[in-house]
Design brief:
The protein has a 6-stranded mixed sheet, with no helix packed on it. It has a 5-stranded mixed sheet with strand order 3-2-1-11-5, with no helix packed on it. The chain has 3 helices and 11 strands.
Length: 233
């Protein structure tokens, strides 16, 4: 709930009180008028633990618009420790595909015992402080590491139409993808025993610092934004 001062209502007579059903149908967001998005980043990491070894893949992409011309930073990482094996997967069917979608799609399929699987997704809106994030420019668009049937890949795929992390071990797959058409996919298909897979994807939006404004001015900006959402001007 947002409490508006009487002066905010007076500044825009188109504002009227809304019922709960009306509020339930409204969708939108509010950013102060003197603010703008200066940085957009994607941070993803996939961790896969097996009784015989571990795999990890990460990808960080940043787009910094603070200096007018956008600059892109990019860093894929891959690692395998020990000797991960697809133990206990024989005879178990986890067929299926992650599919293609808009928005956020999360899918988990598990066939086995004593397993843990998790897809985590987070959106962070924060003031831009001049630091475009942890990504650094990388000379490689894709990094792939293979070892005894285990595969970890991170980077751009489909001629740059998507970016993500993919892991394969036997029939099992763990994947995170950001697609150019606006979709974010997180997929875990796990066939085996005693394994743990965790997908974590984080979107970071950095906004420019707003000018100092009074509480009354802020209330009026919020009031006008609410009126625009409802379609009254």
């Amino acid at each position: 709930m947002i409490a508006l001062a009487p002066s905010a209502w007076a500044a825009n007579p188109a504002i009227v009180s809304l019922t709960d059903p009306e509020l339930d149908t409204m969708r939108g967001r509010f950013i102060a008028a003197d603010n703008r998005v200066l940085y957009f980043g994607v941070e993803m990491i996939t961790q896969w633990h097996t009784p015989d070894g571990d795999m990890q893949g990460g990808l960080t992409i940043g787009i910094d618009r603070a200096r007018g011309t956008p600059t892109v930073s990019f860093q894929p990482t891959v690692s395998i420790e020990g000797t991960p094996r697809a133990s206990g997967s024989a005879g178990r069917d986890i067929s299926g595909t992650g599919g293609d979608s808009r928005g956020v799609r999360q899918q988990i399929q598990v066939a086995g015992n004593d397993n843990r699987a998790h897809n985590g997704f987070e959106v962070v809106l924060q003031p831009y402080n001049g630091d475009s994030g942890q990504a650094t420019q990388s000379g490689n668009t894709v990094q792939v590491l293979r070892q005894d049937g285990a595969v970890v890949a991170s980077g751009l795929t489909g001629n740059g139409q998507s970016a993500g992390v993919t892991m394969q071990l036997g029939q099992s797959t763990a994947q995170q993808l950001i697609q150019g058409r606006g979709g974010a996919n997180q997929l875990i298909r796990l066939s085996g025993d005693g394994q743990m897979i965790q997908n974590q994807l984080r979107l970071v939006v950095g906004t420019g610092r707003t000018q100092t404004m009074s509480r009354q001015d802020l209330h009026q900006q919020v009031a006008r934004s609410l009126a625009n959402l409802r379609g009254n001007n």
